[in-house]
Amino acid sequence: MNAPSQLHAHLTGSISRHCLHQIWTHKTANGSPLDLEDPLIAIPHGRVDYDIKTFFPLFSSYIYKLCNDVDSIKYSTRAVLDDFQKDGVVYLELRTTPRSIPQQGLSKDDYVKTVLAILQAHNENPSNTMKTFLILSVDRRNTVAEAEEVVDLSIKYRSAGVVGVDLCGNPAVGDVRIFTPVFARAKTAGLNITLHFAEIQESGTDQELDTLLSWDPDRLGHVIHVSDAFRARIESQHIGVELCLSCNVHAKMITGSFPDHHFGTWRHSSVPVALSTDDVGVFCSPLSQEYHLAATHFGLDRKQTLDLSERAADCIFTGEEQRARLRRIFSEWHE
Ligand SMILES: CNc1ncnc2c1ncn2[C@@H]1O[C@H](COP(=O)(O)O)[C@@H](O)[C@H]1O
User: Fold this and answer.
1) Is 96 touching ligand 1 by the criterion CB < 6 Å?
2) What is the pLDDT of residues 171-208, one digit of tens each?
3) d(CA 335, CA 328)
4) Is the beta carbon of 305 within 6 A of some atom in ligand 1?
5) Pocket test for ligand 1, best of 43, 62, 97 (most atoms within 8 A of CB)
6) Tens digits of per-residue pLDDT, 166-179?
């Protein structure tokens, strides 16, 4: 199944277990003082039933502790890009939360520079058909000052490939209203905005959704607990939606299974729908598989599946050059 644009993928959540295992093995062999189990034991192969309570601690209590230096960040970022490229993705907007690692003397600025250098090397390699750009994430746990730093870094590294700002993190945490001036500044600076939206009932209150829509977002992620009224507002503002089938089913963020996913509603809407993997390292369903699942459970034929991927390209955060490249690729697929 062709899977052209990947618009909602978290870098750290996209690292495969195999790659985490390689990093762990390398560090253990080099005598690094790691107090961590082998990833293949901590996150066993085939386990995808992480729910919203068990999912977020995976990062703070495991993966961030393992990928905690420049070498492991570079190695895992390269591996993530290779995995997407091998899956047939031709356009990737990868997102990540700037992280400092004081024990290594690594600042958030260093982290972003490190990731961007890997993206740039990937883009400059003529044998790679996938082009990659970066979105920087504000975590809902952040203070306003930390969120401002994410916007500062996004502005600073725009010319190096940062195309937007995201709001992510545990949806049960935080009051998004504190970030209103931060996202206003991002928007004024010309950055695109994507927001995790109504992932759980508690983050789907009218007050939170009103606040998020007041930031004039360009895209919304997940979009699960939304009333008809909010769905109508999203349509009238023509905001693209990033839908992650496997993540939502495995993490039990929706009731039921694939055929019950709200993709079934959004696909009939007028907005761009970008099927995405969210965290392929955790939920183990690459983008080609997500398109396959959508086609299987919603009875899409080849043309409808291609139309869906073309429609997603309407809401990419880069400009006409990338859109034209994608149009060329689509026209070959239609032949
Ligand atoms: C259910 N889906 C989701 N909802 C909300 N936030 C999510 C997420 N999946 C991942 N993240 C956010 O992305 C971080 C890991 O990647 P980066 O370190 O940023 O590259 C997680 O710590 C979480 O804040």
Assistant:
1) yes
2) 999 999 999 999 999 999 999 999 999 999 999 999 99
3) 11
4) no
5) 97
6) 999 999 999 999 99
Spatial contact of 10 and 137, defined as CB atoms under 8 Å apart: yes
222: CA distance to ligand 1 center in Å?
12
Q: Find out whether the beta carbon of 276 lies less than 6 Å from any atom of ligand 1.
A: no
Number of domains in the chain: 1
Q: 222 Cβ partners below 8 Å, 6+ apart? A: 196, 197, 198, 199, 242, 243, 244, 248, 253
Distance in Å, CA 137 to ligand 1 centroid: 9
Closest Cα partner for 224 from 280, 264, 169, 177? Answer: 264
Residue 187 sits in a domain whose CATH number is 3.20.20.140
Q: How distant is the alpha carbon of residue 161 from its chain centre? A: 16
Nearest one of 169, 158, 206, 215 to 188, comparing CA atoms: 215
Q: What is the pTM of this model?
A: 0.98
Report yes or no: 298 and 263 within 8 Å, Cβ to Cβ. Answer: yes
- pLDDT at position 235 over 70: yes
335 is known as an active-site residue: no
Ordered alpha helix ranges (H), 170-300: 180-188, 206-214, 228-236, 245-250, 263-266, 280-283, 287-298
Torsion, Cα of 170, 181, 274, 259 (10° steps) = 40
Atom of ligand 1 nearest to the CA of 282: 9
- What is the domain extent for residue 109? 5-334
- Residue 203 in contact with ligand 1 by CB distance below 6 A: no
State whether ipTM is beyond 0.85.
yes
The closest alpha carbon to 96, from 79, 110, 111, belongs to 111
- Closest CA relative to residue 97, chosen from 64, 51, 65: 64
